[in-house]
Amino acid sequence: MSIRAVLDKMEPHFHKGGKYENWYALYEAVDTIFYTPGKVTRAGAHVRDGVDLKRMMILVWMCTFPAVFFGLYSVGLQANTAMAELGITEAPGWRGSILTALTGYNASSTWDNIIHGAVYWLPIYAVTFIVGGFWEVLFAMKRGHEVNEGFFVTSILFSLILPATIPLWQVALGITFGVVIGKEVFGGTGKKLPEPSTDRSCLPLLCLSCANFR
To answer: What is the pTM of this model?
Structure first.
């Protein structure tokens, strides 16, 4: 059975009235990663293309890979060079265990440098994607719309601007603030600060279901 057939079989359960209707945003995000959305432009007044917004964002995400690999190499090179000068033979903690198992600490080796950089960057990116993705999916489910494609780009750019040795709890806190406070409380991508609410029974800026955010 193809992926398309599996997704089509599951789809009715995620629409309104289905037992998983609250999870439609997550289903839609997975479906449109693999396949073009069913709703496409057909009128002649618009430019028609096989590239939709989600695929454009994935393309931009992939275009950051040269910067990612150069960053991994640069961090690893500086770390391995400093360790050699200081006479340190192994990195501390769980990172050292991974590096010992996979590679060495030779600053003249491209492989050693990239892997050394990766053990610092990959956890940062994983935390960014998981925590930020959680907030994106939560707000999409509460507001009844699709998951915003721009998070593919936001997540990788955010991870690339952080220091290599930043504590992971600070990564989680930073992406939470960026997604929730910097974006979602204003209504999402392309939205502005909502009009003041006359309902004083809640804090409208933090309410997931407030009409001002629809």
So the answer is: 0.68
